Predict the structure.
Amino acid sequence: MTTEAPIIVIGAGIVGTATARALQRAGHAVTLLDSAEPGRATSYGNAGFIAIDHVLPLARPSTLKRVPQMLMDRNGPLTVHPPSIPYLLPWMARFARAAYSMTEVRKGVDSFGPLMAEANVAWKAEIQASGLGELFKSRGALYVYESEISFAASAEERELQRAKGTEFEIVDGNRARELAPGLSSHIVRGVYYPHGMHTINPYRVVESLAERFASDGGTIQRGRVRGFKRAGNQVTDVQLTDGELPAKAVVIAAGRASGELTRVLGFNAPLVAERGYHVMLAPDNVRFDMPVSPAERGFFITPMEEGLRVAGTVELAAPHQPPSWHRADLLIKHLKDIFPGVGGAEQSRWIGERPSLPDFRPAIGRAPRLANVYCGYGHQHVGLTLATATGRLIARQMEGEELPAALAACDPGRFG
């Protein structure tokens, strides 16, 4: 008697854990592998919003035009870690080319449509299948604007959302303050998404998925990958610092570190750390129960079970750089501007690395020139949103199904 080797999913964040669950339900033996406990890295501290309204890639001309102005504003939504600039220059050049090319922008728009449609279905199914109902709320979401100019500048995305059937309501400042009591009087516009959903504890979502995965027969193993054994175009073993794991197939879902693994396998994943911060505050005077995002400032304010989470902004940096904690201080300042008197004493602060590819499309699907290696990384700001969709798509591809044609734009081999 011989036992078939398991599928090895490398990375136990929300994408890897959701993928392990999807493969397990498809009937496969699966090992979930990470150097840390599930959910302890980037998935620990996100804003908690399931952003199925996200249909426009960040790599686009309007973003590119705003970059110089944002970089000159130390309190703005984007900054670059100065010592990291030499490391970041090749990625930034790729980003500029992708943002300038309307062909690349169209690929992003066309791919996000089916991805978000899949995410909408996949999360509802996973919440029911894994008993996660207590961790999610469907209370809507509100984007608020501090000027008519910035509201008008966001019209492009709303038109795309409307064309794809997204339901939203444009409101004035008074209505926005009714939806989110405590909003500053200087808010002039809002866009309310009535079907918006968020989690009250992103870490517990990953932890619960991992517990259900293990209780249903999956294996969770700690270990650091140092290489792969291959036979022809197949990976046969995952090599760890202290041993080897035989593999029927491999899924790379290790976030920013996925780029190090793909280089070993012979293809490129130019990922950088889009560092984000959060601050948890005591829930003083919080009278709203949905995520609120001040669009110009690039962050989210989300009521969670442990308090009020203020999360976001972007800091581009090379790996393993020290935190820039003034970015967390900035979040508190922004909160006081948007919700005067809301939020109490600081309970904790955190930094995480969003894994971002320069065209701001994820890599989903089979790796180039390898028959049994699959990819699920580079989800940038929508990793939580696309986690279950990524898992289901990879599971289907392993069963021989073709991915939707629009997802050719998410081919892991597109960077050579």
Notes: The longest helix spans residues 102-129. The CA atoms of residues 141 and 290 lie 5 Å apart. The mean pLDDT is 95.
